[in-house]
From TrEMBL:
InterPro entries: ConA-like_dom_sf, MAM_dom, MAM_domain-containing
Gene Ontology CC: one annotated term: membrane
Matches recorded under Pfam families: MAM (PF00629)
SUPFAM superfamilies: Concanavalin A-like lectins/glucanases
Signal sequence range: none
Positions of region (Disordered): 1-30
Organism from which the protein derives: Magallana gigas
Record's protein name: MAM domain-containing protein
Domain MAM stretches: 1-147
Lineage top rank: taxon: Eukaryota
Gene3D superfamilies linked to this entry: 2.60.120.200
Amino acid sequence: MCGWTQSTTDDLNWTDGHGRTPSGNTGPSADHYGSTSGHYLYLEASSHYQKTAKLDSPVYPGGQYCLSAYFHMYGQQTGYLAFNIIQAGHKYTLKKYVGNHGNRWLHMRLSINSHAPTFQFEMEGHTGSGYHSDIAIDDLSVTHGHC
């Protein structure tokens, strides 16, 4: 997971997946390249309604960074996916996606300039009210400089 870790302050974990997710009419059928053998992380909503899963990045020194990720939010009951920053003991939401975004991978890029001595990124997914709310992420990366 390239230094990212499952949070201990949530009630669901991200799952390593490839190919189609177990539930029909929700989740991806392949990674963002279209490969059924490629891996991605996802939240399985079946029997996990209204649950939150978080991934925490390594700690970075202040400065300019680019956060990039592909995400897939498909299903009638999809919850939300938030990209947060944690610095000086406070959490700030940088970008939040809510609801069904169709059966496709979308690319998100954010330029961040943190003046704190250190900070972390947090990716927070929240399943919706039913099993049609799988959320997936792929190729999450952090690089120095603007996007």
